[in-house]
Amino acid sequence: MVNWLHSLLPGVFKxxxxxxxxxxxxxxxxxxxxxxxxxxxxVAGPLKKxxxxxxxxxxxxxxxxxxxxxxxSHMIYKRIRALAEEKxxxxxxxxxxxxxxxxxxxxxxxxxIIVDPASIVGSIGVVSAGFxxxxxxxxxxxxxxxxxxxxxxxxxxxxxxxxxxDVRRLKVIQxxxxxxxxxxxxxxxxxxxxxxxxxFSGLFWSGKTAVxxxxxxxxxxxxxxxxxxxxxKVRLKLIGAEKSFFGMRPGRVGAGLAAAAGEGFLDTLxxxxxxxxxxx
Length: 280
What we know:
Strand content: 15-25%
Shape: elongated
Number of helices: 9
Low-confidence stretches: 244-261
Structural class: alpha/beta
Number of strands: 8
Order of helices and strands: HEHEHEHEEHHEHEHEH
Mean pLDDT: 82
Helix content: 40-55%
Largest sheet: 8 strands, mixed
Distance between the termini: 48 Å
C-alpha cells in the first residue's frame, strides 16, 4: 500500500532507504557439510539478491575471515566488483574481528572499508604449510609405496624427503599468486596506500593502524556509518543463504550426521589454527 501511494504522491510518502547486508564469515574454501566454507557458490545467491534490490543504492558486506583459498577469494572479489559495476551500487565493507589474507582480498572489492580499532587487517601474502613424516614412518616400520606415470607427480610428498628443486618450484608459484594479490590491492587502494614496503610482506595490523596505512578508510560500525550516509531511517536488510539441515537433503540427514560432525570438527580446528595466528 505504501509503495502504491508513494508512486501517486512521491512528495508525501517518501520511501525509507534500504541497504542489503551480507555476512561473510569463516575460512575461505570448500569447508564441509557441517561447517560450510566461504566459496563463490555459497555467496553467489545472496550477492545476486542483494544487488538486484532496485530500492538499494548500496550493498553492505560484513567480513570476518582469516583467509583461505586464494582462488575462491579472487572469484568472490571479481563477482562483487562485476555486480557493483553492473548495478551501479556502492559497496561498503565492514570488518569485524579478522580480515586477513584472502579475507582482505575480498574486502578490496569495497568502495569503502570500515574497521573496528581492534580489528586485525592485512597479511597480504601467500602461505603453504604441511608436515614431514619421513622419519616417523621409518620408525614405525611402514613402507611407502607410490606408483606414478610422471616423475613429478608426488612432488612435496610429506612421506618422502624434501627436495630443494621441489621447494623452488613451489616458491615460484607462490610468488606469482603474491604478485596477483599485490596488483589487486594497488589497483583498488593505490591512491591511499602508504609508501611502506611492509604492507606486502605478510604482516598484519590493528584496524587503527590499517587506516593510517591506507589498508582501510575509516574506523566505525555499520549502523552508525550507514545512518550517517543515508539518514536515521535507513533500513538494513540481512540477506542470508538458504540452507537445509547441515547442508544435506532431508532424507540424508541421519545417514550423514556422523560424517558431517567429523568433517565439522576438523574444519573447526583448521579455522581456529588460522585465527590463532592473528590472536583470535
